[in-house]
Write a structure and sequence with these properties.
mainly alpha; 5 helices; 76% helix
Length: 152
Amino acid sequence: MSQARETQPGDSLGRTGLHPAINAFHVARAADVQLRVADAITAFAGSMPFVYIHAAVFAAWMVLAEGSPWPKLTLVVSLEAIFLSTFVMIGQNRQSALQRVKADHDFVEQELELKTNTELTRAIHVLTSELHRRLLDDPKDPVTEAAQRPPA
């Protein structure tokens, strides 16, 4: 089952409303065939159709197969568990990488915002100091007198 997403012009994956770092991560991940296959297998293995198919196949195997289906069935289930656990690890690694990319992006953005806010605060301080100097420290200034006169 796939998640429905809104489309956004210019986005080749049809993603919108996602974190910019997540969009970039998905674009990079979509370029690798092996990762796309692993993602598809992981998505299917984590779905209810996967459970239903396996329940039906294993039930049919036990009922219709040879007289003693248990040794081969055990082998098949064990091998499948090995491969599925590998895909679970791939999914966990993908999620970890995704969170790392998002955290790195957020850190850079936060640092940029902090720098911008610091610059704005300094500019406000300079302007406030200049206003105080003009309005409070130099009352004989013609501009200050004109600004302080009540309107006629």
